[in-house]
Structures are given as structure tokens and as C-alpha cells.
Amino acid sequence: MSSPNKPEVAPAANFIRNIVEADLAAGKHAQRHWAGQPGTAKDHAAGPLDPAKLRTRFPPEPNGYLHFGHAKSILLNFGLAEQFAGRCHLRFDDTNPEKEEQEYVDAIVDSVKWLGCSWEKDGETNLYQASNYFDWMAQFAEYLISAGHAYVDSQSADEMRVNRGTLTQPGKNSPFRERSIDENMDLFKRMQAGEFADGQHVLRAKIDMSAPNINLRDPAIYRIRHATHHNTGDKWCVYPMYTFAHPIEDALENITHSICTLEFEDQRPFYDWLLERLAEGGLLQRPLPQQIEFSRLNLTYVVLSKRKLIQLVEEKHVEGWDDPRMPTLVGARRRGYSAEGFRLFADRIGVSKNDSLIDYVLFEEAQREVMNLSDERRIAVLDPLKLIIDNYPVDQVEECFAPNHPLKPELGKRAVPFSRELWIEAEDFMEEPSKGYHRLYPGNMARLRYGYVVKCTGCDKDENGKIVAVHAEYLPETKSGTPGADSVKVKGNLHWVSVAQAYAAQIRLYDRLFKVPAPGTRREGDAPDLERNFLDDLNPASKQSITAQLEASLKDAKPEGRFQFERHGYFVADRVDSQPGVPIFNRAVTLKDSWGKVS
Ligand code: ATP
Ligand code: MG
Fold it and tell me: Is 296 a catalytic residue?
């Protein structure tokens, strides 16, 4: 059944949901215990049965702002938890001691909340920091050494690279591979004690140097790095590799379904190998988390790589991370996009393993649909031209009534003042009309929406021949909402605001940041040696600032208040630059898809 408050969602394929449903039906995770916080097998065993039917996580590295791709992952993970009585953890994957900025952490927290996702449920606050697990990770590494599953390698980085082999050539065992357990343990302890320089030794898992999957050729699991970590300070001078840390983080947190993007598919055998070894050693609870990969979101007309986004900001091609043209979540929010629209979009595109490039139009369409249902209507004249109604009394002002939402009569109507001088769109008058033009031209009649039918009588021009005002006469018996309103039939229906009461506002018209669907990629007909740079594909007309004439009530718009400006699109009061009583508006999206079409 359709509801006026919710756009309909065609159920999209989501193979991960199917896996979860099958696991739940089989009771695969029903016997897990939960310590109330992350922990080892022993910790969890002491706790009650896990009240969460499943646990997922969203694990950003706090080294940048979240983008539209992350939103897909967030909505998927939190969505599954919501749908199946589970929990979704927000985990900062901060095992790399490289500089992490609190600014990023705060922005990530805000953006996840803004999307409507919560890591707090039934008294649990599942907000974690992977660096808090360093003690466990080091302990687990020592266990692997003691069980003969890890060794300290002292080859140089170059030697290691050469001996790793290639896709077609097996690797070669390191001369240090057969060190005794005692020697390995001693060296690893001394690595931790700070006795060695960066790169002098690494701890490697001992698997198989001839494995067809290169990721199983004794991957490095701990490296020496004399660096201060934002959370653990100088406590550590060895840090776990991401491929070692990540599965352990999942297992400690009792994650059941560890969902990641396809580039980690080749890492899955190591993910499983590592967790198996640790579970064998009694360190981790079974069943172990299962890694499931899906294809990342790729969207036309944007770039979704942190590196490129950083470049856009640092080289000032945009005005910051939250520039409304940026495909970041802070940018989307400022642009006026709705979290609900993101959800609708995510539901529609579904989740699969096929790499695909999604048309940006689909995203905009989801946003429009949500906004069409939620947003109140207002009147704005973006390209103002004065209309003078010569037979209307000079000082008279009367009220016309405009519905706040045509689909929701319960939202009522508001009064808009009508007077002798109105602003209309410049394009709503043509001195010499083109074929099929039904708006104002000398001798023609059109309706001023919610007001009267007027008959155009001519226009004034300045010395350069530019039209500066249009003249008309109104038909008093045709006021909208009165019995005679329909007595005169017209085809044009124009919006307007009264000059004396209008609010002259600054408005930013945003368009696509890039002018081609796949910025920076080669196009048909390119010379074989041509390399494209995504920056060359920037759309020079992606932002335009104008002064528009708005109905007076818009002066009171609060930051983030969003409206449909009739005939134009959806506009939001900018949350950063608006002043009380002086909102500045951003265009989120036009009413219809007009990209590439000449209007
Ligand atoms: P980028 O590749 O843009 O630098 P990232 O993957 O390095 O992003 P992380 O902070 O590691 O950024 O990502 C957190 C989570 O978001 C990961 O689980 C990752 O798989 C997921 N993710 C990142 N980009 C996308 C995308 N385009 N589509 C879906 N999920 C994504
Ligand atoms: Mg990453």
C-alpha cells in the first residue's frame, strides 16, 4: 500500500541479508556468550548468552571524512542489526600510529548519527577503538609464536619483497623461518622493548611461501614503528598490521558478520586462518566471525576515494570537506540532502558482488522523492523581473492563500501578500513569444498562482533595450479560491512574490562537481598514451551565487530548514553561513533531472 509519508521501495537484491537469515534460522550464533564488552573466549564465556542475535560493525579509519560509499556500508551494517534484533558497533580502526585527528573522529560520529544510525541499544554502547585491543593483539601474537605459527624475520624489506614471489612464481622461505620458538619469543619481546630500529625485524605468520594466494605467504603481522599513538602514547613501538588486527577486532567484539568491500576477498583465507589458530588456542570464542564481501559503491559524476577528496580540499577546488558539492556526508548534509533519501537510495541499489557504476540520477531521484513528500512548499523568484499591475490600487495589499503541501492538506495554507508590484521570473515574460509559450506576452493572459488572472499589456525597457518591468491588468473576479476563479481559462500559471514584502536572499545554485560521468578515466577516442587527471574534469559551473526574491516567511527559516521552492527544486537554509533572520539557501536538487538538457 502506498502511504503519503513514505516512498515505496522496490525490494532490491541483498545477498547478505539472505546469509544472515539462513544463519539465524540455523541458530548458528545462538550459543555465543557476551561479556558485556569486547573480550577473549574466557571473558565472553563468563558472561550470559549474547542478547544480540547478530553483531555487525562499521570500522572507519579516522583519517578522513566519510563519503557516500561509506553511507552504503553504514546503512547496510546498521540496517541488518536493526532488522534482525542485533547490534552494530562503530569501531574506530586506529591501529596505525600515523597522525589521527580528533576532527575526523567527531565528524564520523556526527555523520553516522545524522544518517539515523545508533550504536547504543538496550544499555549497550558499542563505540570502540581498536587501539584499546593492543594488549590482546600482542598476547595473541605471542601465542602464535609459542604454537609455532609465527616467526621473527630479519630480512630487509627488499629481500622480503623479492622472496615473496609473484602471482606465477612461488615465494622462497626466509633464512630466518626456522628460528626456534624461544629465539622468536625473545626477539619479539625485545622488539616490544624498543631494542631495535624501525624495519629491523618483523613478525610474520608461518603459513606457506608457495601458497597460490600471495596473502598466505607468511604475511607480516607486527612491525616495529617508533611512533607516538594518539591513544596509547609511547606505550608501544610495535604495531599490528591491518590484516592481523582486523579479524581480531571482529572476534573480540563478537562480530558475527564482518562485512567489507570486495578488495578484501583475497584476504579472507588469512582472516580465517588467523582466527582458527587463535580459537584452537582457546583465545577466541566460536563460532568465529565470517567475512563477507560486497561491491563498493561507485557513482557517476563524483569521486569516492579519500585520496582524491583530500586533494580537492587541499588544493582548494572546493571550499572544504563540507562544501555542498563534495560527496562527503558532511557535504551532503549541508547541501540539504536527507538521510532518509540516502536510505531509500541504498535500499534501491541493493547489495551485490558485481562491480557497478550507479547513475547519480538514481541518487537524486531518491532524494527528490523523499523531499517531495516531506518538504513544505514556498515561493521563490530566482531571476526576478518586476510585474506592475496597473489597474491594482497603489497601496493595497491583500492576502492570497498558498497550500503548504499539496499532498498534505492537514498542513494548511499560509497567507502570501498580493500587491500592485510583484516579482516574477524573467523567463515568464517574452516580448515576442515562441511557439507554444503560454506565459506572459503582450495581449496574453496567465494566472498568477494563488492570485488572479492577469492580462499582459507590455513592458518597459532601459536605454539598452533590456526589459526592466512588465505591465499587466488583473481580472478582479478571477481570484483563486473564489467562485469566479475559473471563469477565465488560461494555460500559463506563474509564481510571484510581492515586491514590498519580499526577502532578497542569497542563494547558491549547486550543480555537479564534475562534468563527465567517470572523472579522470580515459574516454573513447583518447590517444593511447593520454592519461587523464580527474581535476581536468571539474565542472567550472558547479556553483553559482544569486540574489533571489523569496516570500517573506522564508526569512524565519532555521538552519537546515528545507523547502520545495515551487517550480524550482529543493532548497535548504545553509547550516554554516546563515544568520538569524538572514538565511542563505543552498539548492539541494532541482525538481526534475535537467542535467545536460538545455532549458
Ligand atoms: P577509501 O577507499 O575511500 O579511502 P576506505 O575504505 O579506506 O575508503 P575506511 O575508513 O577504511 O575507508 O572505510 C570504512 C568502511 O567503509 C570499510 O568497511 C570500507 O569497506 C567501507 N567503504 C569504503 N568505501 C566504500 C564504498 N565506496 N562503498 C561501500 N563501502 C565502502
Ligand atoms: Mg581502508
Answer: yes
Cis omega (within 30 of 0) for bond into 287: yes
Q: What is the pLDDT of residue 504?
A: 98
- CATH architecture, range 15-134+242-294: 3-Layer(aba) Sandwich (3.40)
Instruction: Output the pLDDT for position 2.
Output: 45
CA 103 to CA 406: how far, in whole Å? 42
Say what the pTM is: 0.94
**What pLDDT, on the 0 to 100 scale, is given for residue 3?**
53
What gap in Å lies between CA 520 and CA 400, rounded to an integer? 52
Mutation to probe ligand 1, out of 56, 70, 307, 358 (largest number of atoms < 8 A from CB): 70
Q: What pLDDT shows up at residue 581? A: 96
Q: Compute the distance from residue 307 Cα to the ligand 2 centre, in Å.
A: 11
Residue among 73, 105, 260 to mutate when testing ligand 1 (max atoms within 8 A of CB):
73
Ligand 2 mean position, distance from CA 596 (Å)? 34
pLDDT at 589: 97
- How far lies 151's CA from each of 180, 272, 275, 444, 512, in Å? 8, 19, 17, 89, 52
At a CB cut-off of 8 Å and minimum separation 6, what does 299 contact?
Answer: 68, 327, 357, 358, 359, 360, 363
Q: 304 in ligand 1 pocket by Cβ < 6 Å?
A: yes
Rounded Cα distance between 277 and 282, Å, is 9
When the candidates are 3.40.50.360, 1.10.1160.10, 1.20.120.230, 1.10.10.10, the CATH number that belongs to 306-376 is: 1.10.1160.10
How much is the pLDDT for 203?
A: 98
Residues of the chain with pLDDT under 70: 1-11, 99, 594-599
SS3 155: coil
Q: How far, in Å, CA of 517 to CA of 370, rounded?
A: 24
Shortest CA distance to 275 belongs to which of 90, 140, 145?
Answer: 140
Q: Cα 79 from chain centroid? A: 15
What fold characterizes domain 147-240? Glutamyl-tRNA Synthetase; domain 3 (3.90.800)
**Residue 476: predicted pLDDT:** 95
Nearest CA to ligand 1 atom 16: 70
The closest ligand to the CA of 328 turns out to be 1
Q: How far is the CA of 69 from the centre of ligand 1 (A)?
A: 7
Kindly state the cell numbers that stand for 60. 572507519
Do the Cβ atoms of 202 and 222 come closer than 8 Å? yes
Angle at 270 between CA 19 and CA 210, to 5 degrees: 130
Cβ neighbours, 10 Å, residue 535 = 15
Q: SS3 breakdown of the chain: % helix, strand, coil, rounded to 5?
A: 30, 25, 45
Is 405 a pocket residue for ligand 1 (Cβ < 6 Å)? no
Closest among 171, 199, 94 to 137, alpha carbons compared:
94
Q: Hey, what CATH topology would domain 377-498 get?
A: Ribosomal Protein L25; Chain P (2.40.240)
Domain boundaries, the chain: 15-134+242-294, 147-240, 306-376, 377-498
Q: Is 353 a catalytic residue?
A: no
